[in-house]
Write a structure and sequence with these properties.
Elements (H helix, E strand, L loop, with lengths): L1 H23 L6 E5 L6 H17 L3 E5 L6 H9 L6 E6 H5 L1 H4 L9 E10 L1 E6 L7 H10 L2 E5 L5 H12 L4 E5 L3 H9 L5 E5 L3 H6 L3 E6 L25 E8 L4 H16 L1 H9 L3 E6 H22 L4
Parallel strand pairs: 1-2, 1-3, 6-7, 6-8
Antiparallel strand pairs: 3-10, 4-10, 4-11, 5-8, 5-9
Helix pairs in contact: 2-10, 2-11, 7-12
Length: 317
């Protein structure tokens, strides 16, 4: 009798072990990376580079879904609504995750997410359309002293918008902001004359400048960037250098810790691959990988910094 009971229990265990193993395995299904800006933008390109490399690390499909709008707020808020199972990540930009919730009711707070890693960074730059009367940054600044100039960025809460609003106040200029849906859309507004100038990540301007569609007036780096060699830096021109843009990955904080650890390791391994670094170089991005804890500190410091700047600019109370 004891033998029968033993065999029955053993059979039950053997039957349930595969199911237990399957339940413990993660990931088994495709992973989604929400990009809160339009396709073809710098942040979108970053997401797609990493998605392909993460696929090889995790052994499952990693797809990018663009949910643009609200300066990144719509996509990030969608990430907060996703099931807390680790199958949805969000790639965030400096402004959207740290300034957006300060400016308006974005539907999320930075504390709703666990930072996985910072990925890349890049300087911002200012450009005008090919037919613009402004040939230099000095021309643009001089015009801004006597009349209102319009400019476009990827969104109201972006680092670019904050930087240009601060630049205007510091130099006694009058700028009015018109949000685009992405960096490419913001650049198009300048090319068509809808706005006087555009401020986005510098890499966006390289092909447009080479094609003669835009004239880049200043870049926010310490030294001139090799892909825009004729463009002076803000520093060269006697202006304060704007902060760098950065992109990174986050996941809902309710996701189980073991799954967060698996995702963080996968992002680290994907970011370290030579193919990833080579693609970043081709896209003119600076590899600025930071692991989750350090990325969390960067986000927190940006929130504190933005709170001071935005209050000073009158964008928040």
């Amino acid at each position: 009798m004891k033998r029968i009971v033993y065999l029955t229990v053993l059979a039950c265990l053997l039957f349930t072990l595969p199911a237990i193993a399957r339940a413990a395995k993660f990931p088994e299904n495709p992973i989604r990376i929400i990009c809160p800006f339009g396709a073809g933008d710098a942040i979108d390109n970053t997401a797609r580079v990493l998605a392909e490399r993460m696929r090889t690390v995790l052994g499952v499909s990693v797809v990018v879904q663009n949910i643009a709008g609200g300066g990144g707020a719509l996509g990030i808020a969608e990430g907060k609504k996703a099931a807390p199972d680790g199958y949805t990540l969000v790639i965030v930009s400096a402004g959207a995750i740290t300034a957006g919730p300060l400016i308006s009711n974005s539907g999320f707070m930075p504390s709703d997410f666990i930072p996985l890693a910072e990925l890349v960074s890049m300087p911002i730059a200012v450009a005008v359309g090919e037919n613009s009367p402004y040939k230099t940054m000095a021309d643009l600044a001089e015009a801004g002293k006597s009349k209102e100039l319009s400019f476009s960025t990827p969104g109201a809460s972006t680092k670019q918008r904050i930087s240009m609003t601060a630049f205007a106040k510091e130099n006694g200029l009058t700028f009015v902001h018109i949000a685009g849906k992405s960096g490419s859309d913001a650049a198009t507004k300048a090319m068509t004359g809808e706005v006087d100038f555009v401020c986005v990540g510098a890499p966006v301007f390289e092909p447009l400048a080479k094609a003669g569609k835009l004239r880049v007036l200043a870049v926010g780096s310490e030294e001139r960037v090799p892909y825009l060699p004729d463009t002076p830096t803000f520093k060269e021109l006697g202006y304060t250098t704007p902060d760098q843009l950065w992109f990174g990955l986050v996941v809902r904080k309710e996701v189980p810790a073991d799954r967060i650890a698996i995702l963080a390791d996968a992002v680290r391994d994907a970011a370290a691959q030579p193919e990833t670094k080579a693609l970043y170089t081709t896209l003119r991005y600076t590899d600025s990988y930071l692991p989750g804890p350090e990325f969390a500190k960067l986000i927190e410091s940006n929130i504190e910094q933005n709170a001071v700047i935005l209050k000073d600019l009158g964008l928040i109370k």
